[in-house]
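Operator note (shift B, R.M.): manual run for Binding-protein-dependent transport systems inner membrane component requested after the automated queue skipped it. Running by hand, logging everything below so the morning shift can see what happened. Input copied straight from the record, untouched. If output looks odd, do not overwrite the archive copy; leave it for review.
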Amino acid sequence: MPEPLARSLRVTGFSLGVAFFVILAAFPFYWMAITAFKQNSDLYDITNIPFWFNEPPTLEHIRYLFKETLFARWLSNSLIIGVCVTAITLVTAVPAGYSLARMTSRKGEALGIAIFLTYLVPPTLLFLPLSRIVTELGLQNSMWSLVLVYPTFTIPFCSWLLMGFFKALPIEIEEAAIVDGCSVFGAFIKMAVPLSLPAILTVVIFTFTLTLQEFVYALTFISSSDQKPITLGVSTDLIRGDVFFWGEIMAGALIAAVPVAIAYNLFLDRFIAGITGGAVK
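Run finished. Output pasted below as returned.
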């Protein structure tokens, strides 16, 4: 086979493969968008083609979300929970990851693996003991119960992630800062933390996304509509018996998903650097 033809076939095959995965990734957003703006008469007519608008689009589903439900409150609750959990995770995971990275014995590596393994424990095994703690603290049926329990799975993974990144930072940089008069903590704050900003940004995005999409703990600890995060509110208050408000459900999912998707795209380079930074020394 001539080389130009072989090259063209490789480029064509690669392009088709990329196009397939792009369509696969973008289709849920397209489906949410087209369902969120369809009229009910168009949405429930089985004779219509479901992949585009057969009738003029409408904002009725979005209006219903903000006027007839507590959707704005659910958004606010999710934002508060995400910000609080992210702050708690950063304050805990950054020094924990640094400490594990600077432990020279095998105990440090074993401890890091043990911490990561706690992240793998299914939430369905933990919500029973955690419910007892939530009850003892008087946080049942409150969004603050989620602020308490979510760090139990964000801190272990983020500590393990940051440990790998801090290991990639040359310790000589911190030693030079200590020679220049910094304390160990000062060298950590002035040298290690600024150099680890990609990993810290990764932790922020990962933690906030994880709290935004979590469902099991929210369903277990919260029943009042005004305390629900968006994942629980959309999936429970918009399903009544065997009636699914598909337009409103998809509109709520779209509104919640678009900001996260934009954040991932804006910080994609730093996010990848944070994920892979600990893999190369």
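Quick read of the result: The chain has 15 helices and two strands. The chain has two domains: 3-58, 68-279.
Leaving this for review. - R.M.
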